[in-house]
Every structure is written in C-alpha cells, then in structure tokens.
Write a structure and sequence with these properties.
alpha/beta, Rossmann fold, six-stranded mixed sheet
C-alpha cells in the first residue's frame, strides 16, 4: 500500500433518488483521507452524512443513483460497481459501526457468536481461535466479564454495551478504513473516552483511516484531524478541525456551534440554526419561560432495590442476584427537573422502569400520593400510569411502524377514558400543536418523519393522559444539536404551561446542567452524590463524579 496516496478519495459524489418527485440527497461532495487520519463529517439530521457513508460501503438503496468516484487504494467504487460491489471489501477493507445497535445485532443470536462469525468470514483461523479472539475484543472495548458477555443475547445488554459489541465487530478485522456513524451516541462520557482511545490505538497500530460521523461538535474537535460540514446534501465547509471549529467561516457552521447548551445559557431559551441563519426571525421567538416554583414532594423513593436472579439451584431458587438498583432513596418535588447521570449499565434505565411499574421491585417503597407503587398489581397500576409517563431514548423503535400518528395519540386517550368518539381527533390535534407539528401528521406513519419529529411525537403521546411526572430516558441523546435545542426548549415550555415534573436521565452533562434543578449521580446501582445541579457538576465531592466531569469533551 502506497502511504503517499490517500486511503480513500471521494470526488464529485452525487446521489439522487428517482420517483415522482426526484431529489438530490448529496450534491458534489469531495474529500480525501490519509492513512491513520480521521475525518469528522458533521451536520444536522438529513444533511446527507449517512448516505455518503452508505455509498462508500456500497449499501445505497436500489432507488438511488450514484455519480462521481469513490476510490479505495484496493478498489474503485463507481456507478457500475455499485451493483457488483466487491464483497471482500465490506467488513475487511472497510468496517462500519452503525448508529443504532438495537437493529444492527441479530436478536436471536448470542453476541459472541455474531462477533466470531465476523472474524471467521475474513480471517483464515479455526473456530476456537476465532472465539478466543472474539472474547479478547470484548475486553478491548471495555465490556465487563467478556467470557460471560460472549454468551449473552442483545436484549440482555444495555444500549451502550450493544454499541461496544458493534464497534468490536467493525474493528476485529483491522480494516484500512473504519466508518463510524454516530458510534458514541448511546455511550456515556467515560465510555465514550475509552472507545475513542481504543479507536486512536487502532489507528496508531494499524494505520487505519476513519470517517467519524457525529452531531457532537465537541467530540469532532477532540477526535478529528479534518472536518467536513454538510447541510442539505451540500458541503458547507471543509478543512482542518482547528480551522473549521475554532474559526468557522460559513454561517451554518457558526450556527451549529452556538446551539450546544452551556452553563451560561441556563434558564435561557437555546438558539436554533434557523434563528441564526435568519436573524429576522429572532424577534418572533418567545421570551424565556420563567421557571415554575418548586413544590412539595410528589414522589418519594425509599431504599429501592431491583435485583434480578442469576444462578438458580435445582428447585429454581436463586443463588445469586444481579443488583441493578441497590438501595436507592430520593424525593422528587413538584415542578422540578431532577437530573440522573451515570455510566451505561449503572442502573439509570432500570430505576426509571421500576418507577413506571415495568420491572418488579425486589425491596423498598415508591410513594406517590398515598400509594406505595412498589406493591401494586398490574391492574392497580393502570390509573397510576396516566400520572407517570415516559419519553423513551430511541424515537425509532418506540413508535409502532404499523400505526398512524393519529392512532398512536388516540390510543392512550381511549385507554385512560380521557376522550372518545368525536372528541378523539380534536384532542390529538391539540397534542400535535403542543409539540409544534401540523395536524396533517395524523394520517402519516413514523417512517415519514425525521428523528427529531419522531421524538416530538413521543412527547405528544406521553402528554396524552395529562401526566404529572415525565421520565425522560435519554430523550435527546440521539438528536443533532439544533433539534436537541428545539426539544429542550419544548420541554421547558411544556413544564411552564402544565406544571410538569421531570426525571431527566442523560449522559450529556452539559444538557443535564442546563435543564436540571438538582442532579443525582448513579454508580453500580447506588446514588453516590446528589444536590443542586451547580454544586454537583461544578464542585463535585465524589471521585466518580469527578471522573465523569473530567471525561467531558
């Protein structure tokens, strides 16, 4: 391989889709990546970032038409070769980490076997050697007890753990080019740092070039040598990371950098890209909603334990437990935003599901009003569920692809007896209006919306039964910075209008600091530190909290 030549050169890439209304998804994009270097491609959802990566991998939809040239040192991929893509390139010469690990892993196949299969496909080694190498890679991506993880199914792992499996699968064959499409979206800051260090190690060890697609500009500044900014399929800016992110010339790049929450913006409405690109609209932006006063205790959790049986004896009696939540206590006050942070697998999502009655409580109490939710039966939970709702992390998998938006919004209205008959559609339209979506969305399906719009639909569905508490489980982590700003503004507006109380779970500490009144830090199933957001995140006392904050890029 000639080290003087780029590993990958893309020239005049043009991707169009035929149909009744043909459109250009990527227009005349050109860039090159040298051995051992990283190119970050940044931009909002729908800018063409992922399509560019799919073109390089030969995975474009059949309806797409490709023009231009994509030259790897070992092959040239063009419009002709797109139909006959060299199979030995994909997975061996070019590895790819997809954004969504939930849909990238086979749900009925153990993760170790999937990793072993990827190794055997491209390496001439025995099955036993492939298993040993697979377990070694599980350790390299910082998964605990790799031998046990090898035998688990995807549903037995957290989102962050699944993403690390995908990273191991993409890297295990030492590719010349690694394409990482939002690879750290589901990861907390400390694991994100570990994964980035691992990717850097691979680059140094094997001279791997990398395309890193992300909406996190801070991460792009940390990991990339060069940055390409895309908007609506066009190249806005391209150059070294220092030039593009420290001294941006294009108004769009400047707008992206201003959308990210910061400590200085706490209590203020976040700017969005449209505001900055079209300053005449700023006068029409509503003034920041004043924070509502914090009230009395609304939910009280006392010594909550959520334990899952592991080993069992011959009679089925558990010998040991996995202690996902182990003695957690806290109060949630009316009108406040309580942030919950911690590494992937620390028990955040399990805690939230226990508060929703979705996992059994081993021990402890959850007091809501005069009821202990921890001891309620499924039937007794139904009236409570209208008062405690959840906005899930993934707007793609949390919406039923076979249901229209109208059906999704009217279903909880009917289940909880809020509306019926002719009153259903007006109420559904009101919910869409609350999340700033047009009423025409009622007859559409989830696949017809962007990620940010789907998250708004998830928020509208959660608001349908008029809850008192909203649990936001990583509800903005998968969104680009501008859409994230819109959703955070929306959550603050809804809180001011309806007096909502939030449990806000996230791994982005800048977002948690911006939106939260108080913060709890969770590690290995216990709360290690809690207090006002400013105190915990600016002046931490626990060593674990200090490590989390030190890992922020």
């Amino acid at each position: 391989m000639d080290d003087t030549l780029p590993i990958l050169a893309v020239n005049g890439l043009h991707i169009t889709f035929a149909g009744t209304q043909p459109f250009t998804a990527v227009n005349n994009i050109s860039f090159a990546i040298q051995k051992g270097k990283t190119l970050a491609i940044v931009g909002e959802s729908g800018s063409g970032k992922s399509l560019t990566a799919l073109a390089i991998m030969g995975l474009l939809p059949t309806a797409a038409s490709l023009q231009g040239s994509i030259t790897l040192q070992t092959a040239q991929i063009n419009a002709t070769l797109e139909q006959n893509y060299p199979q030995d390139i994909r997975g061996k010469e070019i590895g790819m980490v997809f954004q969504e690990p939930m849909s990238s892993l086979n749900p009925v196949m153990r993760v170790g076997k999937q990793l072993k299969e990827a190794i055997l496909t491209h390496q001439p080694i025995t099955g036993d050697a492939a298993k040993t190498l697979a377990i070694d890679w599980l350790g390299k991506v910082q998964l605990p007890q790799p031998e046990k993880i090898y035998d688990r199914y995807p549903h037995q792992l957290s989102g962050g753990q699944k993403q690390r499996i995908m990273i191991a699968m993409a890297m295990c064959n030492y590719p010349a080019l690694l394409i990482a499409d939002e690879p750290t979206t589901a990861l907390d800051v400390t694991v994100q740092q570990e994964i980035i260090r691992l990717m850097h190690y691979l680059q140094q060890e094997y001279g791997t070039a990398m395309i890193f697609i992300t909406h996190d500009l801070g991460l792009a500044a940390t990991i990339a040598d060069d940055v390409l900014v895309m908007y609506n399929g066009e190249m806005m800016e391209y150059g070294t990371a220092n030039d593009v992110l420290s001294n941006p010339q294009n108004p769009y790049t400047k707008a992206l950098l201003l959308c990210r929450p910061s400590a200085a913006q706490k209590g203020e409405r976040l700017p969005i890209v449209a505001d900055i690109l079209h300053p005449q609209n700023i006068a029409q932006i509503p003034s920041p909603q004043k924070g509502i006063p914090i009230g009395n205790t609304l939910l009280s959790v006392k010594d909550l334990k959520v334990w899952f049986p592991q080993e069992q004896n011959i009679l089925g009696t558990p010998r040991s437990y996995f202690k996902a939540v182990d003695g957690v206590s806290f109060d949630l006050h009316k009108g406040e935003v309580l942030g919950l942070v911690g590494e992937s697998g620390c028990g955040k999502s399990t805690l939230s599901r226990a508060l929703m009655g979705l996992v059994p409580v081993y021990e402890g109490a959850i007091h809501f009003g005069d009821q202990n939710l921890a001891i309620l039966s499924s039937k007794e939970w139904r009236p409570i569920r209208s008062k405690i709702q959840m906005i899930f992390q993934d707007p793609y998998s949390s919406l039923n692809p076979r249901m229209t938006i109208g059906d999704m919004l009217t279903e909880p209205l009917k289940v909880h007896g809020i509306a019926s008959g002719s009153g259903l559609l007006p109420e559904a339209r009101r919910l869409l209006d609350l999340v700033q979506l047009p009423s025409t969305a009622l007859n559409k399906y989830p696949h017809e919306f962007s990620g940010g719009q789907r998250q708004r639909i998830g928020i509208a569905r959660a608001l349908a039964p008029s809850p008192e508490i909203l649990i936001c489980d990583e509800s903005v982590s998968a969104l680009d910075v501008s859409i994230q700003a819109q959703v955070l503004n929306l959550l603050k507006d809804l809180q001011a209008e309806f007096g909502l109380t939030y449990l806000f779970i996230a791994h982005d500490l800048a977002v948690v600091h911006y939106i939260s009144n108080r913060v709890m830090v969770m590690q290995s199933g216990i709360i290690v530190e809690s207090g006002p957001a400013e105190q915990v995140l600016k002046h931490p006392t626990d060593d674990y909290t200090k490590r989390l904050i030190a890992a922020i890029v």
